[in-house]
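Intended use. Records such as the MFS family arabinose efflux permease entry shown here are meant for training and evaluating sequence-to-structure methods. They are not intended to support clinical decisions.
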Amino acid sequence: MNPTSRPAAVPVPVPVDAVPPRRPSRPRIHRAWIVAAVTFVTIIGGAAFNSLPGLLIDPLHTEFGWSRGEIGLAVSIDMALYGLTAPFAAALMDRFGIRRVVVVALTAVAAGALASVWMTASWQLMLYWGLLVGLGTGSMALAFSATVTNRWFVARRGLVTGILTAAGASGQLVFLPLCAWIVDEHGWRPASVTVALAALVVVPFVWLLMRDHPADVGLAPYGGTYVEKPAPAVGAATRTVRVLLDAARTGPFWLLAGSFAICGASTNGLIRTHFVPSAHDHGMAITAAASLLAVIGVFDIIGTIFSGWLTDRFDARRLLAVYYALRGVSLLFLPMLMAPAVHPPMIFFIVFYGLDWVATVPPTMALCREHYGEDSAIVFGWVLASHQVGAALVAFLGGVARDVSGSYDVVWYASGALCATAALMALVIRGQPTDRPGAPKAPA
């Protein structure tokens, strides 16, 4: 060994505790938020059609000579099918999966809107607008957002529910002014094509990014623990019908369904369908009237959230009575507010009506929970169906009244009287001593 050479260095073991920890990687966005975002966009795309019927009543009447009653009948078929499909939508998603049902629903909406470009007879309007679009939009009703929220989220469910509920109003805010401008500048056919494209554009996002269950991608729900994906449900549709038959033997169900039918008649059937053509009768531009209708969607969100806060603190029956009474009074004043230009009293009506638009939903849901316990979600689905049937009737009868009388005034007055009836119906619903799951049903 060379005396001048240095001995080889011997590696000294380093204690494990002395090794600096690795910097944690930035957490990725949970897949649940991507699914929620796709759901939000899907609801907006589906809501595009709901912005269209009120804008097309006058153009279709002018071009084809169809009566407003015929056009209103097509809209009423759409609304009725929307309501009657909604209770079964969750069962369809449990059986065939969210992604397949939503893709088929969007395709049906697009097909109905696109096919209407070539229609020449009123029965085609009822087939395309009524049947195809009604079944499509009904399959993407409240059950869609509720199913996504329940499967993909444990934490933040309230936040996600609020966001997805706001999607419908957001779609109205986006598409109403846009479609009104297209109708005014280019005619009704480009507007119908726009609605079809809005539905079709969403389809690839749903197919590529939507998943039926967190277990499909090996994840736990957001804020929860991993659970296996359940087998496709069978018998859900049978249970939906059975719950309806049981609830139909009780008095509160008919009072809730009847008052909510009047709610639909005085909102979707009346204002959403006939406000724009009625304002146009008084010389207001279609774009201005549609913009007012879009503003209702903004205050709709505020009113619904505030109504939920009130429902936690006050008797739901009294809240419903106040909501319907105030709505009825406002409708009695509406004929006096119609004018070629937008004045402050009309703006006040729009803000007030927007706050009251679906403020009835939280107390109605609370009363369903109070009387029907664990079946309350399905019962509310059927009550929602009555909402759409009421809307369908007024969408049709409002057009007939305009054809016969030459004015919408009688429609506003009649709807105001109906709202007074709904207020009385809400007050006579008997209270239930408990709202625990499985609470006994109220007797008929």
